[in-house]
Design a protein that fits this description.
The protein has two helices and eight strands. By secondary structure, it is of the alpha+beta class.
Length: about 160
């Protein structure tokens, strides 16, 4: 797995411009005072796209989202998926991180936009963009891309 700044990318990521466009639309929505629900973009074999929105109220809703997407992708009609969501991320400087604290309960958490993309060949990437809420505006950091065989992504084609 490689980690790169977006400006350094060549052609490692399929549909890179589409993915960056989705990230930009999400950032604009947040700047305008909105939030982002988990949104799935499913690409069909014929090139058509379907969009599904999943409100994430609790852990059960998250599990239900994964189950619905898995069933949808198992039909064999899709070649890729892209998930877009807002999330919290824990960071630490310790050699032994404390995984008992969930990011939502971590006072040092970071707010991020996450865009996860994977195709039926197993190729994928995650784009993470930190956002910082200031008094009068929201600042977006430079997105980071993690590409390659990223095991953190769901493989709905198993």
């Amino acid at each position: 797995m490689k980690e790169q700044q977006l400006n350094d990318l060549d052609v490692d990521i399929p549909n890179k411009q589409k993915l960056l466009g989705l990230l930009s639309v999400a950032a604009d929505k947040i700047k305008d005072g909105g939030g982002i629900e988990v949104t799935a973009f499913l690409e069909k074999r014929n090139g058509d796209m379907e969009m599904m929105i999943f409100p994430q109220i609790d852990d059960f809703a998250k599990k239900l989202t994964v189950m619905i997407l898995k069933k949808q992708m198992e039909t064999g009609n899709y070649v890729s998926y892209t998930l877009l969501n807002e999330a919290w991320m824990s960071t630490c400087d310790k050699k032994e991180p404390d995984f008992k604290v969930r990011p939502r309960d971590d006072p040092n958490r970071k707010e991020i936009l996450v865009l996860s993309h994977k195709n039926d060949k197993g190729e994928g990437c995650i784009i993470i963009q930190e956002l910082v809420r200031l008094e009068s505006r929201i600042e977006f950091k430079e997105p980071i891309v993690k590409d390659g065989e990223w095991e953190g992504l769901f493989n709905f084609w198993k």
